[in-house]
């Protein structure tokens, strides 16, 4: 194993540097991951912009897929993996003993740091420093949660475990979506498309996806992946269309996964059916939501649920779907980037770079 690793280090908002860091030796209960791929999502863009409350310098990258390069005996027994196994690594590193962990809500654990305590969010000042997957190698802490993944699947497809896991958690697990439900998804980005796939797998009867005019290719892809109806909210009266589709009842489940835009949050109250569930999972940079009519929650007896992160159950559902080959997931993946092109990868996702718009992309250190 190389004793040095290339790593992209964020030194401040919109400031990335390619550095060389030492690869630590493993203890009995830790491991080293050789990174095959790291997915890029909206949280990467928020971290790049400096929106997330993290300390610099830090190695970003919270969607790691890779191969166990070295592992201690205790870690191998705990995770039931060994050198050479391919694994997907969960974002969070839970403490395992706080109130939230013990209640099964480990994705909300803040006991170790008081803030974000997952991969990509721990600063270089905390040894051994390689806490993110924008690198050739990454440290796996003792409390990490890993999942074996079929090594024959192309890395670009296998690394979709994270957005698909979000789809299963946000569109199925949190709102308890089941057969017969009408599900409306606000935002056709990678998480929105993953929510389409998950809702269809859960037996949803009708799936509706909304987007902007510039999202036309994504809305078409949503149809290919299982959406029954798509709505361009800039060209159509979305409230009227939802009433037409649902015979005036509204959607049983509304999943809001748009990035930064606050209008869909307010609109979700008009789309949801009486007794329905709204899941808010798209972060807005802590902006206030204008025109949010709370009385609609009251008169409809609607339930509004927040969703942060992904659970092991949802990750397992995603990995099973990937390994089944039952869905054309390659249609979601649009870009591959070398490690040194991390900034271009993020700017492409944000629409700041020329060329084809990104839906799902990843860094491949081997490029």
Give an account of the 3D structure.
With about 375 residues, the protein is an alpha/beta fold. It folds into two domains: about 5-160 and about 330-365, Quinone Oxidoreductase, Chain A, domain 1 (Alpha-Beta Complex); about 165-305, NAD(P)-binding Rossmann-like Domain (Rossmann fold, 3-Layer(aba) Sandwich), CATH 3.40.50. Helices cover about 30% and strands about 25% of the residues. It has twelve helices and 15 strands. The strands form three sheets. Strands 3, 4, 5, 6, 7, 14 and 15 form a seven-stranded mixed β-sheet that branches. α10 (about 295-300) links the parallel β12 and β13 (about 305). α5 (about 160-175) packs across α6 (about 190-200). The model has no long low-confidence stretch (mean pLDDT about 95).
Number of helices: 12
Could you give the order of the helices and strands? EEEHEHEHEEHHEHEHEHEHEHEHEHE
How many domain regions? 2
Shape: globular
- Mind telling me the CATH superfamily name of the largest domain? Medium-chain alcohol dehydrogenases, catalytic domain
Number of strands: 15
Largest sheet: 7 strands, mixed
By oligomeric state, this entry counts as: single chain
Query: What name does the CATH topology of the largest domain carry?
Result: Quinone Oxidoreductase, Chain A, domain 1
| Average pLDDT | 94
Q: Strand content of the residues, in percent?
A: 15-25%
Structural class: alpha/beta
Helix proportion: 25-40%
CATH first level of the largest domain: which class?
Answer: Alpha Beta
- Named at the architecture level, the CATH assignment of the largest domain is Alpha-Beta Complex
Give the terminus-to-terminus CA distance: 18 Å
The stretches of 5 or more residues where confidence is low (pLDDT under 50) are none
Structural Rg: 20 Å
């Amino acid at each position: 194993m190389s004793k040095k690793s290339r790593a992209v280090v964020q030194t401040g908002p919109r400031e990335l540097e390619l550095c060389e860091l030492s690869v630590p030796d493993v203890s009995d209960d830790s491991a080293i991951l050789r990174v095959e791929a790291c997915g890029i999502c909206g949280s990467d863009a928020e971290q790049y912009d400096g929106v997330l409350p993290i300390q610099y310098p830090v190695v970003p990258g919270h969607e790691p897929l890779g191969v166990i390069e070295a592992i201690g005996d205790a870690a191998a027994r705990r995770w039931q993996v060994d050198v050479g196994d391919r694994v997907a690594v969960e974002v969070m590193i839970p403490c395992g003993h706080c109130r939230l962990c013990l209640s099964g809500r480990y994705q909300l654990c803040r006991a170790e740091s008081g803030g974000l305590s997952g991969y990509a969010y721990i600063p270089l000042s905390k040894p051994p420093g390689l806490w993110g997957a924008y690198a050739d190698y990454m440290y796996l802490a003792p409390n990490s949660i890993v999942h074996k993944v079929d090594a024959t699947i192309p890395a670009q497809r296998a690394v979709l475990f994270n957005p698909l896991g979000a789809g299963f958690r946000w569109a199925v697990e949190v709102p308890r979506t089941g057969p017969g439900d009408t599900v409306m998804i606000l935002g056709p980005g990678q998480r929105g498309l993953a929510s389409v796939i998950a809702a269809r797998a859960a037996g949803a009867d009708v799936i509706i996806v909304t987007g902007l005019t510039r999202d036309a290719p994504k809305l078409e892809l949503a149809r290919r992946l299982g959406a029954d109806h798509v709505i361009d909210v800039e060209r159509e009266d979305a409230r009227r269309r939802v009433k037409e589709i649902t015979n005036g009842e509204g959607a049983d489940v509304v999943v809001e996964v748009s990035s930064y835009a606050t209008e869909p949050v307010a609109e979700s109250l008009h789309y949801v059916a009486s007794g329905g569930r709204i899941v808010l999972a798209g972060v807005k940079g802590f902006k206030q939501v204008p025109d949010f009519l709370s009385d609609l929650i009251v008169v409809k007896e609607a339930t509004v649920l927040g969703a942060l992160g992904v659970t092991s159950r949802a990750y397992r559902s995603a990995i099973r779907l990937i390994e089944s080959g039952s869905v054309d997931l390659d249609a979601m993946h649009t870009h591959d980037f070398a490690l040194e092109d991390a900034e271009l990868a993020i700017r492409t996702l944000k629409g700041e770079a020329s060329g084809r718009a990104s839906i799902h992309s990843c860094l491949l250190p081997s490029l």
